[in-house]
Amino acid sequence: MLKPITLAFASLALLALLAAPAAMAAPCKDAKGKFMKCPPAPAKKVTRCKDAKGKFAKCGTPGAKPM
User: Fold this and answer.
1) Is residue 39 included in any domain, yes or no?
2) How far apart, in whole angstroms, are the C-alpha atoms of residue 27 and residue 38?
3) Which domain holds residue 17?
4) What angle do CA 22, 25, 30 make, to 5 degrees?
5) What is the DSSP letter of 33?
6) Tell me, what's the pLDDT at 49?
7) In this structure, is residue 46 part of a structural domain?
8) What SS3 state is found at 22?
9) What is the dihedral of CA 49, 51, 56, 60, to 10 degrees?
10) How far is it, in rounded angstroms, from Cα 28 to Cα 23?
11) Span 3-25, pLDDT tens digits
12) How would you classify the pairing of strands 49-50 and 56-57?
């Protein structure tokens, strides 16, 4: 037979699993609670660096400057 504390932990874990999908859908609802198309995620700005000779180099290496 299950102990009461084990049963309590199991029920809390089940509640946490059920609450997660509702939290993920929240940003795609309008103020009235209706589903709408989610706004696109902002694009990341990629920083590329070149060395003194003009070749691509890893940013942070000596002499590398952002383009």
Assistant:
1) no
2) 7
3) 1-30
4) 120
5) S
6) 92
7) no
8) helix
9) -50
10) 10
11) 777 777 677 676 666 655 555 55
12) antiparallel
